[in-house]
Amino acid sequence: MRITIRDKCSTNASSLFIQSTYRISRHFAMLFSNSTFATFPLDFGFDRPTVRMLSQPQHHSNEHMNHRALSVLVFCILAFPMAFKFTFTREHTPNDRPLLDSSIYISGFFRPIVSIFNTVYFVLSPKTILLYCTIAHGKPTPSRMDLVNETVHLVQGKEYINRLWRHSFGSRALSLHVYLFKHWFAMPQKIIDKYLADDSGSGPKPHPLSSVETQNRTDRLSHSVFKDVLSGSDTASLCQRYVLRLCKALDQSDISMSWTSQPDLVDFVRGALTLANTEALWGTHLTETSDFCGDLTEFFQDTRKYTYQLPRWLIPKAFARRDRLLSDLHRWQSFATGVDGHVAPWEDSKYNDGKWGSKRLRKWQADFLEMDDADAAGLASVHLTFAWAVNVSLGPAAFWAVQEIFRDPTLLERVRSRLPRAQSAADVTSLLSQAQTREEICADPLLQSIYTEILRLRVCAFVVRRFPHDSVDLHGWRVPRDQICLVSTHIAHMHGDEWNTDGGKEPLNRFWANRFLVLKTDTDTKLAPPATSKLCPEDPWKFSLRGLEGVWIPFGGGPRACPGRHLAKHHMLVTMAAMVMLFDIDIAASDRPLRASHANHGLGTLLPVGKVPFSIRRRV
């Protein structure tokens, strides 16, 4: 028997849908059986996706055939509501009734059924279901997805995303954040309740309809710690401390002038970057008294286990790691704020930020403790949240940039020609310690294009907004009050005709270092160039992001855009420069592009599948 499914969507999307539904049907069928499951081979043709169920010999047992019947039944149950939903989403036109405000979307009996299957798909394969729901006629389009306990409005498309950013000042994103606070970072419930009760917004003045007291404006406190610490007056000294810590970590690594093999380039780059970034923000005291960075790196991988809310007895090592991280931060908080006779308050004129951490971070800590019901345990949980946020995506992003540079000899030579020459590791530290040198590196067109392309290709984040007081109009697509808006950076970055593909020669699923470069003489382009190179004045290329507002969105956008985006750019480009100036790297199997794992889809920068072995030697 052959079942042929035709749809207006692309063949690839149809095939992925059938495969995903088929896999889930197998899992469901196996739950009800202890014996071997009857296998149905899938045959997906290029022009027409099909599910081919091969005829079986007549001597198969009734039990065996029952398994087949059960799996077919589960497949049909799964496929019908999902296919109905996807077809409706795909076949609407811009002139139809706004989908986000449609009462005929799916109602009655099928709506709760669809919400269950949507939730299952969203947990197991968020990339696939969001792609189905938002790509209409080949273009990103808003849609709505009903989950078991929430209605999520999927906002895609340049004009809709830009409109969402403009409304974001009065928004919040507590649904996702509260879940992470509770299950990932072990925040006490009394602090979570303060976050849930806050509807005042993140601005200097609370929303007129809010009655939250000033000291309990948790949204403002959370936003201010990122804004003040990562983009405030302390930024210059923070960058300087980062450079010194990074060069020290790389110089002290066990790398000689001869080639040596290493097991994983991800660990090498991320380890040095995480250590430097953590010491720049929290000071050396935190890392000298514990293996904080080692536990933090492992914690990044543990978060998926916390998401499933597995009990402690099933994942004791993950819970023990988190307990150590919180204990380290708790000890750091008390030791560095004058408790037990130690003198290191943030307001002390003799304060050593290299040892005790950012002064702005200390000031924010004092403000947090003024909140009702605030205590040391809640503060440690927020510090852990901050440590995760500033490190989890930056290390993998730097890895992707480094491996793309070193796997392409031509690109490596182009990058090295733009960097200052160094005769020793001390020269590298001295050069990168100069603010002017770092400014020139961060403004170089090629380096900026590499950085921008890496974030486009590898950052896969969900940007969440909720408007507690008013509904929002997105060019005729209305989002009701107090419902979730979700933007997928992956869909925005991988679809649309705004991108430069060199006439189709450089597709969006592949790294291209020149994607954001245009000729200086090219004045008639949607990528008009604002930046030229000081390191290489004869370079004919310029860098530009013009025309990509609402399309290139790795940091979100609007007033709630990531306040650490400028610091992240500095750290990543400086790390790229230091690696290129200090080392030669040969990546094993460099003739094959690395595949990215979507295990943590929606949570930041993707990691590669498996380890990335490499050989390395010093240049200076």
UniProtKB/TrEMBL annotation:
<keyword id="KW-0472">Membrane</keyword>
<dbReference type="Pfam" id="PF00067">
    <property type="entry name" value="p450"/>
</dbReference>
<dbReference type="GO" id="GO:0008395">
    <property type="term" value="F:steroid hydroxylase activity"/>
</dbReference>
<dbReference type="InterPro" id="IPR002403">
    <property type="entry name" value="Cyt_P450_E_grp-IV"/>
</dbReference>
<feature type="binding site" description="axial binding residue">
    <location>
        <position position="562"/>
    </location>
    <ligand>
        <name>heme</name>
    </ligand>
</feature>
<comment type="similarity">
    <text>Belongs to the cytochrome P450 family.</text>
</comment>
<keyword id="KW-0479">Metal-binding</keyword>
<dbReference type="InterPro" id="IPR001128">
    <property type="entry name" value="Cyt_P450"/>
</dbReference>
<protein>
    <submittedName>
        <fullName>Cytochrome P450</fullName>
    </submittedName>
</protein>
<dbReference type="InterPro" id="IPR036396">
    <property type="entry name" value="Cyt_P450_sf"/>
</dbReference>
<keyword id="KW-0408">Iron</keyword>
<keyword id="KW-0349">Heme</keyword>
<dbReference type="GO" id="GO:0016705">
    <property type="term" value="F:oxidoreductase activity, acting on paired donors, with incorporation or reduction of molecular oxygen"/>
</dbReference>
<keyword id="KW-0812">Transmembrane</keyword>
<keyword id="KW-0503">Monooxygenase</keyword>
<dbReference type="InterPro" id="IPR017972">
    <property type="entry name" value="Cyt_P450_CS"/>
</dbReference>
<dbReference type="InterPro" id="IPR050529">
    <property type="entry name" value="CYP450_sterol_14alpha_dmase"/>
</dbReference>
<dbReference type="GO" id="GO:0020037">
    <property type="term" value="F:heme binding"/>
</dbReference>
<feature type="transmembrane region" description="Helical">
    <location>
        <begin position="66"/>
        <end position="84"/>
    </location>
</feature>
<feature type="transmembrane region" description="Helical">
    <location>
        <begin position="104"/>
        <end position="124"/>
    </location>
</feature>
<keyword id="KW-0560">Oxidoreductase</keyword>
<keyword id="KW-1133">Transmembrane helix</keyword>
<dbReference type="GO" id="GO:0005506">
    <property type="term" value="F:iron ion binding"/>
</dbReference>
